[in-house]
Amino acid sequence: MTALLVALAGLWLLLALHDLRAVVSLPQLPQLSDGGKRHDVTIVMAVRDDGEHIEESVRRLLAQRDVDLRLVVIDDRSTDATGVVLARLATGEPRLRVVTIAELPPDWLGKTHALHRGSEGITTRWILFTDGDAHLAPDTLARAIDAAERTAAAHVCLLPEHRGASFLGRACLLAFQLAVQRRVAAVNADHRAAFVGTGAFNLVRTDAYRAIGGHLPLRLEVVDDVWLGCLLRRAGHRCRVWLAANEFAIEWGATPRALVKVVEKNMFAVLRYRTWLAAAAVLGGAGLLGLTFAAPWYAGALGWLPLGCYLATGLAGVLLAHRLRWPLAAALLTPATRGLLLVAMANSTWVTLRQGGVRWRGTFYPLEQLRRGQVH
Length: 376
Fold this sequence. Notes:
By secondary structure, the protein is an alpha/beta fold. It has 17 helices and 12 strands. The strands form 3 sheets. A 7-stranded mixed sheet has the order 3-2-1-4-8-6-9, sandwiched between helices.
């Protein structure tokens, strides 16, 4: 019994130290260098049925300064007024090109096909893949490209602020973010096997993107942003990740329920649709948490050792909340909200298996097809 308790305590203490190191080492997006060169970049954004917000999104992106900018918006089979609004915006705006997709070809996901089509013919040095809900400060893109050039990076991801998140939503988002920080730290340390990607801000040097085949190898990848990072890393390209909470915001996972829903199609995909691995992760994680929280009751005073070490994992959440300028009280709940990761994984696995695939942007993709089209 004593050995089990010590092992549990050691596991949580290592996790706490690892997370603290990852958050401490997370760099802030640098300012523009003095006399920085003005870079050329094309922003590629795929939208579907976004007529209510598309004008705001387009104008926000066109407002980026200190770059030679072009914007490609792909209207992916919209059934609302999205196409009409885009056509109006493109009139008299030479920087905006609209690509309209009426049909989805076989063996493609809607989003990856749209990004593939939108990236065709681009000749600028850089491409930014982003989403319609991304809010960028006017100098964000110029600073990211400048920082990439100075660090010889071919791939840049920015970590955002989450707009409109509730108190409990922020507590849950911190738990999710801490899980991501471990990979981010490995990427920034140039670990060979580490890779990352963010759908709302995936900045890629065009020659590196072309060399890996663009989105063609990713045509059936639900988490295409992450696997784009994988292919770039395999090809030997450097990635850099910066915190840009003051320069970049998204509307994503504002409440615990919304967070579980928004990752419903992603979590099982991250595990490559391996049911045994998802079951092991959920049951194993629940077992460890159950043993830890029950330890004071079944082991007496010594049982507080693993529980105390587990609660210490919240220290990284406090530090990250401070850097995000979020209430520290939300961070104190991080040890409790870590359990939502298991709920999200269980929900994603159950929903995908129950319906036999993934439904996304109005199209159903069978699980067999998704497994067959994975990057290996």
